[in-house]
Amino acid sequence: MILYPPRFVTLHRMIRLLLAATLFLTMSAWSGTLPDAELFFKNANFSGAKLSPNAKFVAVRIPNKEHRASLVVLDLETMTPQPVASFEVADVVMFQWINDERLILNVGDLQAAQADIHDAPGLYAVNRDGTEFRQLVERNIEYLKSGLEANILPWNNFFIAAKQNQTGNDVFIGQIEGYGKNVDQFWQVKTLNTRNGRTVTLDAPAYANEWFFDKDGTLRVVVIRKGHMRTVQYNDPSTGQWRKLAEFDFLSKDAFEPITIGPDNVLYVASNNGKDKTAIYRFDLEHNRLLPDAVVASSKYDIDGGLLFNQNRLVGVRYDVDGEVTQWFDPEMEALQKTIDRLLPTTTNRIDFGSRAETPYVVIDAFSDVLPHTFLLFNKETKKISRLGASHPDLESKKMSKMDLVHVTARDGMDIPTYVTIPNGSGGKNLPMVVLVHGGPWVRGGFWQWESEVQFLASRGYVVLQPEFRGSIGYGYHHFHAGWKQWGRAMQDDVADAAKWAISSGIADPQRICIAGASYGGYATLMGLVNNPDIFRCGINWVGVTDIDLLYSVKWSDTNEVQKKYGMPVMIGDPVKEAEQLKAVSPLVQAARIKQPLLLAYGGVDERVPEIHGEKFYKAVKVGNPDVEWVSYPDEGHGWRLLKNKVDFWTRVEKFLDKNIGQHIGQHIGQ
User: Fold this and answer.
1) How many domains does the chain have?
2) Measured between alpha carbons, how far is 502 from 532 in angstroms, rounded to an integer?
3) What angle in degrees, to the nearest 10, is found between the helix axes of 452-459 and 643-660?
4) What's the pLDDT at 143?
5) What is the mean pLDDT of residues 595-600?
6) What is the CATH number of the domain that holds 506?
7) Contact call for residues 101 and 127 (beta carbons, < 8 A)
């Protein structure tokens, strides 16, 4: 049920109390005892703040009286809040300003397990004062449109985020017409008027599924995905026709990714451009080529997004190196960043500014390795900082543990960036350690920020080691490509070499090291126990792959058939031509070799790594290993959504670690 117009006295008071606080005043929910697992893993309390284009208002997402994420708009002149969208059985997920008066949003159920999610996100619009609330897209998933109200679109219409002038009432949506993992998706792209619900279908090539609009809202560039090929097409204003800019295999080093079309009508793309590291370039639309000079580049890290614009031009780029940085091209914004960083020297300070600001206000998202996201309001004239809210206000940053990035040299000379978190107050020497292997594996796993899993483990006294093994992205094409067909091989060696580094550095007690991870990280956990029993004394695998052949053969997974045909044989291994090699790195085949204590956890409705991975492996490993704990969460998917399941799982992890590598810890950290 929608509570409209939603106005709660308690919510009004909550906002005022939040504004009265400062970044440096924190109430502690624990003192002298270990913080409860629930404090780490519950949904964020205050989960977003966005300035209106004129910077006169800020929209914030905070809990309502049903503990659901609701949307409230704060008038910065009067500092009065106005609740604008609130639901009893749903949470506001995405929200965005359309113009100075109106917002767009969609919803989800953040308190439901995967098995209980049956609705689409829908789409809604509302004025900043709570009036003219309108549902634009149906949530109920029906394949035949029937019984829908006038001008409410069926569920298969989704919001397309695009850079716009933010002056009109239209947004862009895509209606998906092709369903399933065995078909190439076909979309219709439309404009949608958020006041009357009317749509206009735009001219777009078939099978386009990425769309880029110019500042006037004209669809100019699309990316078409057909099989393993990518085609970039351009709507040429000089001819009014679509023409091809480029075509390439999606795994090619020569591929590039459009990022956006700026207000200067320049197409910005991410590309290697013949180099190892991805950088951001301008694309010459007239001559179909990258301009030679990068907009921003790094010699150590890939840079592929985070462009920041005002009304007229590119003013900055936000990207990750060892931590997040913002490189400003605008002198005024650069000076502002320096001012804020001097006031808040221990945090990364992400600035949100109005694209055509009429006030001196900006919003700061301040965070660090020990501080969860905290949202602040900054007045450029008075230099005053006011606190809006924090994602996890019940955790004290002074009791969290610091994270650092180190560089480990693997046995073949490959550089392995590795994040290491030392428990606060521990002294940092000869400690029990958890090697936490990220999933993917073709992602960047670690970031310099507060992470619930890492901080929970550190609060229990464990060093947390997070290696960016070969195959991880963000560190150049060579680092990424070096992981191809290296599951259980060189990728696994990198994880072991990172653990050896921690031992040789005196950080880790060699007798008390456990390996843990989810998805691919779960696979690496099992192979770590197989390959390196001298290093890893125990393992924790949740929702992990246990056999590469099952990735190909299980038909009820959500793995796309294009991936199975073109991507996986190249990056993991061909199930026919390289069958013997894949068996040699199969935890299921090698299960009898695992004798260490093991905790296994799976979701009953997981479509990414179906539970059969865990069931088959558990049946095989327990024959020769009596110290295996199994837990299944029947309603969960590829990871845990319900707080009770998160708490149950991590409490099990805590007990498992304490039993197997924690018996010599001594007093708990934080006491």
Assistant:
1) 1
2) 15
3) 40
4) 61
5) 98
6) 3.40.50.1820
7) yes
Tokens matching residue 169: 């009432």
43 in any annotated domain: no
Longest CA–CA separation in the chain, Å: 75
Q: What number is the average pLDDT over the span 636-662? A: 97
d(CA 561, CA 403): 39
Q: How far apart are CA 336 and CA 362, in angstroms?
A: 10
pLDDT at residue 150, rounded to an integer? 63
Give domain status of residue 432, yes or no.
yes
H helices, E strands: number in the chain: 13, 35
Q: What is the pLDDT of residues 410-430, one digit of tens each?
A: 999 999 999 999 999 999 999
Rounded to 5°, the CA angle 361-363-365 comes to: 160
Query: How far is it, in rounded angstroms, from Cα 128 to Cα 188?
Result: 30
pLDDT in tens, 288-339: 999 999 999 999 999 998 999 998 899 999 999 999 999 999 999 999 999 9
Tally of CA atoms within 13 A in the half-sphere of 525 that contains its CB: 32
Q: What is the pLDDT of residues 200-211, one digit of tens each?
A: 999 999 889 899
Please name which of 266, 265, 225 lies closest in space to residue 247, comparing C-alpha atoms: 225
pTM for the structure as a whole: 0.92
Check if the beta carbon of residue 594 is closer than 8 Å to that of residue 526.
yes
> Which pLDDT does position 141 carry in this prediction?
87
Q: Is 3 exposed, middle or buried (0-12, 13-18, 19+ CB in 10 A)?
A: middle
* pLDDT class of 169 with cuts at 50, 70, 90: very high
Tell me the angle at which helices 490-504 and 520-531 cross, rounded to the nearest 10 degrees.
Answer: 70
Query: Angle CA(403)–CA(405)–CA(409) in degrees, nearest 5?
Result: 140
Q: By the 8 A CB rule, do 471 and 442 touch?
A: yes
- Give first-to-last CA distance, the chain, whole Å: 45
597: burial class by Cβ within 10 Å (0-12, 13-18, 19+)? buried
- Domain assignment present for 492: yes
Cα–Cα distance measured from residue 122 to residue 159, given in angstroms and rounded to the nearest whole number? 9
CA–CA separation, 520 and 497 (whole Å): 18
Helix (H) or strand (E) holding 561, with range, is helix 561-562
Q: Bridge-partner residues for 108, per DSSP? A: 91
Q: Residue 406 is encoded by which pair of tokens?
A: 């180190």
Question: Do the beta carbons of residue 266 and residue 279 sit within 8 Å?
Answer: no
In the three-class reduction of DSSP (H, G, I as helix; E, B as strand; rest coil), residue 569 is classed as helix
Q: Is residue 590 part of a domain?
A: yes
Rg, Å, the chain Cα set: 26
pLDDT score for 145: 54
Looking up tokens 């290993």 gives 625
Q: Are strands 385-390 and 403-409 parallel, antiparallel or unpaired?
A: unpaired
Q: By the 8 A CB rule, do 536 and 529 touch?
A: yes
Q: Which residue has the tokens 């009317």?
A: 198
Helix (H, G, I), strand (E, B) or coil at 224: strand
47-65 residue pLDDT tens: 999 999 999 999 999 999 9
pLDDT tens profile 487-513: 999 999 999 999 999 999 999 999 999
pLDDT (average), residues 26-45: 74
Closest Cα partner for 373 from 355, 395, 341, 358? 395
Residue 549 domain boundaries = 401-660
